[in-house]
Amino acid sequence: MERTIEDVEQELKTEHGLYLRALADFDNYRRRMDRERSHVGREALRGFILSLLDVVDDLERLLNVAESTPFLKEVRMVHRKLMDLLEKAGVHPFESVGKPFDPSLHEAVATAPAGERPPGIVVQEVKRGYLWDNDLLRTAHVVVGV
Amino acid sequence: MAKSVGIDLGTTNSVVAVMEGGKPTVIVNSEGSRLTPSVVAFTRTGERLVGQLAKRQAVLNPENTIYSAKRFIGRRYSEVQAEIKNVPFKVVAGENDAVRFEIMGKLYAPEEISAQVLRKLADDATKYLGEKVTDAVITVPAYFNDAQRQATKDAGKIAGLNVLRIINEPTAAALAYGLDKKKNETILVFDLGGGTFDVSILDVGDGVFEVKATSGDTHLGGDDFDKRIVDWLAEEFQRENGIDLRKDRQALQRLTEAAEKAKIELSSMMETHISLPFITADATGPKHLDKNLSRAKFDQLTHDLVDRCVGPVKQALSDAKLTENDIDEIILVGGATRMPSIQALVRRLMKGKEPNQSVNPDEVVAVGAAIQAGVLAGEVKDVVLLDVTPLSLGLETLGGVMTKIVERNTTVPVRRTEVFSTADDNQTAVDIHVLQGERELARDNRTLGHFRLEGIRPAPRGAPQIEVTFDIDANGILTVTAKDRDTGKEQKITISGSTQLSKEEVERMVRDAQVHAEEDRRHREEVEARNNADAMAHQVEKQLRELGDRAPANEKARAEQMINQVRELVRTQSTDIAQLKQLTGDLQQILYGLTSAAASQNQQTGQPGQEEPRGPDDVVDADFKKAG
Lengths: 146, 628
Description:
The structure holds two protein chains of two kinds. Chain A is α+β, with helices and mostly antiparallel strands. Chain A has two helices and six strands. Chain A has a three-stranded antiparallel β-sheet with strand order 1-4-5. A three-stranded mixed β-sheet of chain A has the order 2-6-3, with no helix packed on it. The longest helix of chain A has 61 residues, at 5-65. Chain A is elongated. Chain B has 15 helices and 26 strands. In chain B, strands 1, 2, 3, 4, 11 and 12 form a six-stranded mixed β-sheet that branches. A four-stranded mixed β-sheet of chain B has the order 15-14-13-18, sandwiched between helices. In chain B, strand 16 (271-282) and strand 17 form a beta hairpin. Chain B is globular. At the A-B interface, helix 1 and strand 2 of A face helix 1, helix 7, strand 16 and helix 15 of B.
């Protein structure tokens, strides 16, 4: 088969295009890595905040049963302080009860009779959900009406 | 250029990885996780959920949530009787004794379910890379027979992937450690995952792997170890308090989470503290669980599980007619191999030889598959200097905002594709207004060109799928292509010199964007609030129309009043974001009520559901502005 210089030039051009794309790939990768590196600190903080929320959960369990104890007011103060701290870091709880079940926010742990409400509505919150600067930080664990 | 990825399609979780700059990288999915649960759910509203989202709703919808599809793929119905007993969804016999899942009256093959998982992984990879993923290497267990391999390949095909090759999981793990370069070695791969245990013995020579023997236990994994901790905690608690926590769903949930955490901690610490205050209550008041668990105690609780790993290893050696002295390399795969007791067992069985474990054991199979995909796709060698786009490129979408397709400072050549749709019912043409700049609103950016794609078949708004591709070659020549997926009609424009702006001009445009950032952001929010309100009004209107007289009169009147209010706000370009959001929320509530009213009426009358089927997950990121 005859190969003209034009054929070879065309082939070379195609190959060179592929080659440049591969390099561009790498450059874009490097840039994304740089960007991700700046998120690393945030990711580390995420783990810490999540474990802190476990403690917040425990404190809220205490609040739920502390109605008649003499230190209720003081425990509330400590809880408030903790929540303010989280709030300042951009961590906010979100409401789930009465909202339609949404798997992008909720994790269903059980079902219960829906009663008056239409099915598919969250009837109970077992674990509160949290957002961090509008991104999901922790799903809410919920009981859903059926 | 299309990318090829490596996919570890697991029983419990799947992982996708890609070669970038000659190095394998595990891809983070759209939920921000490196592992994607191999779970697919079909909801009552006709939605299909894949991965983490499917898993989160499993409790609500167990009969329509399919997991462990890998245990069924490519097998005969008569072979999977034992597996069927372990799952809450319906498994039936199809033609020729094929396994089928029955979901809401429809039959699905296991490969169709696996295809959904593959599709999600490929889509997330596409999003992550900014480049279309079309080719994949998929891994399967070494013991998979031809039918199972073929079915896995078919799953890839159904997912729209070009399956470059199906490779064995242990082979992929060996590739991840570069063992293909070894001459005549024998490798033992010890893979203890969440729910399955596989042992494989491979021979490698001249880059070719041969499986000598496989063995394992299809129902042994890390989850069994968690359960031992749960049982221990519950029994101790019962002995002290007389209450069985396993009977209390919420308490069990907390126990299970705490057990997994404790197991992970015990891989790096000698003792862990498990504290679950207010775990339950009785007449005497609240009860707390507070326990220390030492690694020694954990090993004692789980020693029989560890012992169950011994048999398969010995079996594989004897099937391969080898002894532990013939093994040159050992590779640990699966998260459960992080447990010190498992590592000690492997060392003991292999006469003190050190296993390879520098690659994350959850990801090593996907990493190896990515390397294989990279090899099949060709490699990158040298480095030259490349241009970047000085300013972002994008197009105008509904409400006059600029939607960026290629961000500034992206290295060229580059190709990015996004799918858009129409803003109005029966819209037959879309105007593509190509923009350059950093401002949020189209009018503040530089126009590079205009063109129009016509001949879209009349359809409800949001239904047509218009694929818009920005391709910049190494010379900075930009080609924008719009393609209607339905008709295949295509229109394009080529713009040269989009990267050849003077430095001063670029700096001015970037500075402008910074100065106006706050005001631009507000404008954009206003536009988005109006678009959202308008879309919601449209949906409610549609639902009302479908329901006809069956819509409750009071709801209908309220809805119509709110729809009119939205239309007026949109017409007058209202900037009252709060009011728009309030109306959107209220309309959503109404829509929800109407939908469930429709559903319950349908149940009563036995009519088919009227919910609109949702399209594929990757559409409608933004709406085009109205054409003409």
